[in-house]
Amino acid sequence: MIRLIATDLDGTLLRPDLSVSDRTRRALDAARAAGIWVVPVTARQPRGVQRIAQAAGFDGWALCGNGAHGLHLGTGEVLFEAHVEVAAQTALAHALRERLPDVLFVSVRRGGEVFVAEKGYAALAHFEDHKRDPAEMGDYTLQDVLAEPSLKFIVRCPTRTPRELLPKVLELGLTGFAVTHSGAPFLEVLAQGVSKAWGLAQLCQKLGVARTEVMAFGDAPNDAEMLAWAGRGVAMDNADPEAREAAGELTLSNAEDGVAVAIEALLAGC
Protein backbone atom coordinates (compact mmCIF):
# COMPACT_ATOMS: atom_id res chain seq x y z
CA MET A 1 0.00 0.00 0.00
CA ILE A 2 1.43 3.36 -1.05
CA ARG A 3 0.60 6.26 1.30
CA LEU A 4 3.08 8.87 0.04
CA ILE A 5 4.34 9.79 -3.42
CA ALA A 6 7.65 11.70 -3.47
CA THR A 7 8.57 13.25 -6.78
CA ASP A 8 11.49 15.18 -8.14
CA LEU A 9 10.51 18.12 -10.36
CA ASP A 10 12.98 19.03 -13.11
CA GLY A 11 13.49 16.16 -15.53
CA THR A 12 10.85 14.10 -13.72
CA LEU A 13 7.43 15.60 -12.98
CA LEU A 14 7.91 18.64 -15.21
CA ARG A 15 7.96 18.42 -18.97
CA PRO A 16 11.10 19.64 -20.79
CA ASP A 17 9.53 23.11 -21.06
CA LEU A 18 9.11 23.05 -17.22
CA SER A 19 5.32 22.83 -17.45
CA VAL A 20 2.94 20.52 -15.60
CA SER A 21 0.85 18.68 -18.18
CA ASP A 22 -2.91 18.32 -17.80
CA ARG A 23 -2.50 14.55 -17.53
CA THR A 24 0.06 14.91 -14.76
CA ARG A 25 -2.16 17.33 -12.82
CA ARG A 26 -5.11 14.92 -13.08
CA ALA A 27 -2.95 12.05 -11.81
CA LEU A 28 -1.67 14.09 -8.87
CA ASP A 29 -5.20 15.18 -7.97
CA ALA A 30 -6.42 11.59 -8.17
CA ALA A 31 -3.65 10.44 -5.83
CA ARG A 32 -4.51 13.17 -3.34
CA ALA A 33 -8.20 12.28 -3.57
CA ALA A 34 -7.25 8.69 -2.72
CA GLY A 35 -5.65 9.92 0.51
CA ILE A 36 -2.04 9.73 -0.69
CA TRP A 37 0.39 12.49 0.28
CA VAL A 38 2.08 13.98 -2.79
CA VAL A 39 5.38 15.66 -1.90
CA PRO A 40 7.79 17.50 -4.19
CA VAL A 41 11.39 16.56 -3.34
CA THR A 42 13.68 18.85 -5.27
CA ALA A 43 17.02 20.61 -5.49
CA ARG A 44 15.05 23.85 -5.88
CA GLN A 45 14.65 26.29 -3.05
CA PRO A 46 11.09 27.16 -1.93
CA ARG A 47 10.79 30.07 -4.35
CA GLY A 48 11.51 27.65 -7.20
CA VAL A 49 8.80 25.28 -5.98
CA GLN A 50 6.31 28.11 -5.63
CA ARG A 51 6.78 28.89 -9.32
CA ILE A 52 5.00 25.64 -10.25
CA ALA A 53 3.01 24.95 -7.04
CA GLN A 54 -0.33 26.17 -8.37
CA ALA A 55 -0.01 24.21 -11.61
CA ALA A 56 0.81 21.00 -9.71
CA GLY A 57 -1.58 21.57 -6.80
CA PHE A 58 1.24 21.61 -4.24
CA ASP A 59 0.05 23.24 -1.02
CA GLY A 60 1.36 20.85 1.63
CA TRP A 61 4.76 19.51 2.61
CA ALA A 62 7.76 20.06 0.36
CA LEU A 63 11.40 19.00 0.63
CA CYS A 64 13.74 21.56 -0.91
CA GLY A 65 17.48 21.98 -1.38
CA ASN A 66 18.03 18.25 -2.02
CA GLY A 67 16.37 17.31 1.26
CA ALA A 68 18.08 19.88 3.47
CA HIS A 69 14.92 21.95 4.05
CA GLY A 70 11.49 20.58 4.91
CA LEU A 71 8.59 23.02 5.03
CA HIS A 72 4.84 23.30 4.57
CA LEU A 73 3.96 25.38 1.52
CA GLY A 74 0.56 26.33 2.92
CA THR A 75 1.35 27.33 6.48
CA GLY A 76 5.07 28.11 6.18
CA GLU A 77 5.87 25.72 9.04
CA VAL A 78 9.50 24.61 8.92
CA LEU A 79 9.99 20.95 9.77
CA PHE A 80 13.79 21.08 9.60
CA GLU A 81 16.79 22.88 8.10
CA ALA A 82 20.22 21.23 7.83
CA HIS A 83 23.19 23.53 7.22
CA VAL A 84 26.73 23.06 5.98
CA GLU A 85 28.88 24.42 8.80
CA VAL A 86 31.30 27.28 8.20
CA ALA A 87 34.35 25.16 9.02
CA ALA A 88 33.37 22.47 6.52
CA GLN A 89 32.63 24.81 3.62
CA THR A 90 35.74 26.87 4.35
CA ALA A 91 38.01 23.84 4.29
CA LEU A 92 36.44 22.68 1.02
CA ALA A 93 36.67 26.07 -0.68
CA HIS A 94 40.32 26.71 0.19
CA ALA A 95 41.50 23.19 -0.59
CA LEU A 96 39.68 23.05 -3.92
CA ARG A 97 40.81 26.49 -5.03
CA GLU A 98 44.42 25.45 -4.53
CA ARG A 99 43.86 22.78 -7.19
CA LEU A 100 41.40 24.67 -9.40
CA PRO A 101 41.97 28.44 -9.24
CA ASP A 102 38.93 29.25 -11.42
CA VAL A 103 36.37 27.51 -9.20
CA LEU A 104 33.61 29.72 -7.75
CA PHE A 105 31.32 29.36 -4.73
CA VAL A 106 27.84 30.40 -3.56
CA SER A 107 26.19 30.19 -0.14
CA VAL A 108 22.40 29.74 -0.10
CA ARG A 109 21.04 30.83 3.29
CA ARG A 110 18.01 31.77 5.38
CA GLY A 111 15.36 29.48 4.05
CA GLY A 112 16.80 29.64 0.54
CA GLU A 113 16.01 33.34 0.12
CA VAL A 114 19.52 34.72 0.58
CA PHE A 115 21.97 33.95 -2.23
CA VAL A 116 25.55 35.05 -1.60
CA ALA A 117 27.53 34.51 -4.80
CA GLU A 118 31.24 35.00 -5.21
CA LYS A 119 32.40 37.72 -7.60
CA GLY A 120 32.19 36.42 -11.17
CA TYR A 121 29.52 33.78 -10.51
CA ALA A 122 26.55 35.78 -11.80
CA ALA A 123 28.24 36.17 -15.19
CA LEU A 124 28.18 32.36 -15.58
CA ALA A 125 24.60 31.88 -14.42
CA HIS A 126 21.24 31.82 -16.17
CA PHE A 127 17.83 32.27 -14.58
CA GLU A 128 16.92 28.58 -14.81
CA ASP A 129 20.13 27.50 -13.00
CA HIS A 130 18.69 28.65 -9.67
CA LYS A 131 15.23 30.00 -10.64
CA ARG A 132 16.68 33.40 -9.78
CA ASP A 133 17.73 36.47 -11.76
CA PRO A 134 21.55 36.59 -11.87
CA ALA A 135 21.28 40.30 -11.08
CA GLU A 136 20.06 39.28 -7.59
CA MET A 137 23.04 37.03 -6.88
CA GLY A 138 25.44 39.65 -5.62
CA ASP A 139 29.15 40.15 -6.13
CA TYR A 140 30.82 39.05 -2.88
CA THR A 141 34.29 38.16 -1.68
CA LEU A 142 35.04 34.55 -0.81
CA GLN A 143 35.24 35.60 2.83
CA ASP A 144 31.66 36.90 2.63
CA VAL A 145 30.47 33.69 0.97
CA LEU A 146 32.01 31.56 3.72
CA ALA A 147 30.92 33.75 6.64
CA GLU A 148 27.68 31.92 7.52
CA PRO A 149 26.41 28.31 7.36
CA SER A 150 24.71 27.29 4.10
CA LEU A 151 21.53 25.37 3.39
CA LYS A 152 23.26 24.62 0.12
CA PHE A 153 26.87 25.43 -0.80
CA ILE A 154 27.34 25.63 -4.57
CA VAL A 155 30.60 24.81 -6.33
CA ARG A 156 30.96 25.78 -10.00
CA CYS A 157 33.86 25.67 -12.40
CA PRO A 158 33.63 27.29 -15.84
CA THR A 159 36.10 24.81 -17.32
CA ARG A 160 34.75 21.54 -15.87
CA THR A 161 31.39 19.81 -15.82
CA PRO A 162 29.93 18.61 -12.51
CA ARG A 163 30.91 15.04 -13.40
CA GLU A 164 34.49 16.19 -13.94
CA LEU A 165 34.47 18.34 -10.82
CA LEU A 166 33.04 15.76 -8.42
CA PRO A 167 36.17 13.50 -8.36
CA LYS A 168 38.29 16.55 -7.59
CA VAL A 169 36.19 17.25 -4.51
CA LEU A 170 36.25 13.62 -3.37
CA GLU A 171 40.02 13.41 -3.83
CA LEU A 172 40.43 16.07 -1.16
CA GLY A 173 39.43 13.52 1.48
CA LEU A 174 37.53 16.08 3.51
CA THR A 175 34.59 15.39 5.81
CA GLY A 176 31.72 17.39 7.25
CA PHE A 177 29.58 17.58 4.12
CA ALA A 178 27.80 15.60 1.41
CA VAL A 179 28.08 16.42 -2.29
CA THR A 180 25.86 15.63 -5.27
CA HIS A 181 24.68 17.05 -8.59
CA SER A 182 21.29 17.32 -10.25
CA GLY A 183 21.99 17.92 -13.92
CA ALA A 184 22.57 21.63 -13.30
CA PRO A 185 26.04 23.01 -14.19
CA PHE A 186 27.39 22.93 -10.63
CA LEU A 187 27.94 20.68 -7.62
CA GLU A 188 25.60 20.94 -4.64
CA VAL A 189 27.18 20.58 -1.21
CA LEU A 190 24.92 19.71 1.74
CA ALA A 191 25.32 19.07 5.43
CA GLN A 192 26.96 15.76 6.22
CA GLY A 193 24.54 12.86 5.82
CA VAL A 194 21.90 14.94 4.07
CA SER A 195 20.24 13.77 0.86
CA LYS A 196 16.77 13.56 -0.57
CA ALA A 197 16.46 10.18 1.15
CA TRP A 198 17.44 11.71 4.50
CA GLY A 199 14.90 14.53 4.19
CA LEU A 200 12.18 12.16 3.08
CA ALA A 201 12.86 9.91 6.06
CA GLN A 202 12.41 12.91 8.41
CA LEU A 203 9.06 13.77 6.84
CA CYS A 204 7.85 10.16 6.84
CA GLN A 205 8.68 9.87 10.52
CA LYS A 206 6.52 12.93 11.22
CA LEU A 207 3.64 11.57 9.15
CA GLY A 208 3.90 8.01 10.43
CA VAL A 209 4.64 6.61 6.97
CA ALA A 210 6.92 3.59 6.54
CA ARG A 211 9.50 3.57 3.77
CA THR A 212 7.70 0.58 2.25
CA GLU A 213 4.67 2.85 1.82
CA VAL A 214 6.60 5.39 -0.28
CA MET A 215 6.71 5.61 -4.07
CA ALA A 216 9.45 7.93 -5.33
CA PHE A 217 10.22 9.31 -8.79
CA GLY A 218 13.50 10.76 -10.07
CA ASP A 219 15.92 11.14 -12.94
CA ALA A 220 19.24 12.51 -11.71
CA PRO A 221 22.20 11.47 -9.52
CA ASN A 222 20.79 13.47 -6.60
CA ASP A 223 17.66 11.28 -6.77
CA ALA A 224 19.51 7.95 -6.53
CA GLU A 225 19.53 7.65 -2.73
CA MET A 226 15.82 8.48 -2.53
CA LEU A 227 14.97 5.93 -5.23
CA ALA A 228 16.93 3.25 -3.39
CA TRP A 229 15.37 4.17 -0.03
CA ALA A 230 11.73 4.17 -1.10
CA GLY A 231 9.62 1.04 -1.11
CA ARG A 232 9.03 1.68 -4.80
CA GLY A 233 11.69 3.72 -6.56
CA VAL A 234 10.76 4.65 -10.13
CA ALA A 235 13.28 6.14 -12.56
CA MET A 236 12.29 8.07 -15.65
CA ASP A 237 13.18 6.74 -19.10
CA ASN A 238 15.34 9.86 -19.50
CA ALA A 239 17.16 9.19 -16.20
CA ASP A 240 20.91 9.19 -15.67
CA PRO A 241 22.56 5.81 -15.04
CA GLU A 242 22.86 6.43 -11.28
CA ALA A 243 19.11 6.91 -10.95
CA ARG A 244 18.30 3.92 -13.14
CA GLU A 245 20.56 1.64 -11.13
CA ALA A 246 19.07 2.79 -7.81
CA ALA A 247 15.44 2.37 -8.88
CA GLY A 248 13.49 -0.86 -8.96
CA GLU A 249 11.18 0.30 -11.73
CA LEU A 250 11.23 2.37 -14.90
CA THR A 251 8.52 4.58 -16.36
CA LEU A 252 8.24 6.72 -19.49
CA SER A 253 10.20 9.93 -19.87
CA ASN A 254 9.17 13.28 -18.45
CA ALA A 255 8.24 14.35 -21.98
CA GLU A 256 5.79 11.43 -22.07
CA ASP A 257 4.21 12.11 -18.64
CA GLY A 258 5.94 9.12 -17.08
CA VAL A 259 5.00 10.09 -13.52
CA ALA A 260 1.33 10.29 -14.47
CA VAL A 261 1.50 6.92 -16.23
CA ALA A 262 2.92 5.24 -13.10
CA ILE A 263 0.43 6.92 -10.75
CA GLU A 264 -2.48 5.92 -12.97
CA ALA A 265 -1.28 2.31 -12.86
CA LEU A 266 -0.89 2.49 -9.09
CA LEU A 267 -4.42 3.78 -8.58
CA ALA A 268 -5.79 1.20 -10.98
CA GLY A 269 -4.19 -1.52 -8.91
CA CYS A 270 -1.89 -2.68 -11.70
UniProtKB/TrEMBL annotation:
Pfam families: Hydrolase_3. InterPro entries: Cof, HAD-like_sf, HAD-SF_hydro_IIB, HAD_sf. SUPFAM superfamilies: HAD-like. PANTHER family: HAD SUPERFAMILY HYDROLASE-LIKE, TYPE 3 (PTHR10000:SF8), PHOSPHOSERINE PHOSPHATASE (PTHR10000). This is Sugar phosphatase YidA. It comes from Deinococcus xinjiangensis. The lineage of its organism: Bacteria, Thermotogati, Deinococcota, Deinococci, Deinococcales.
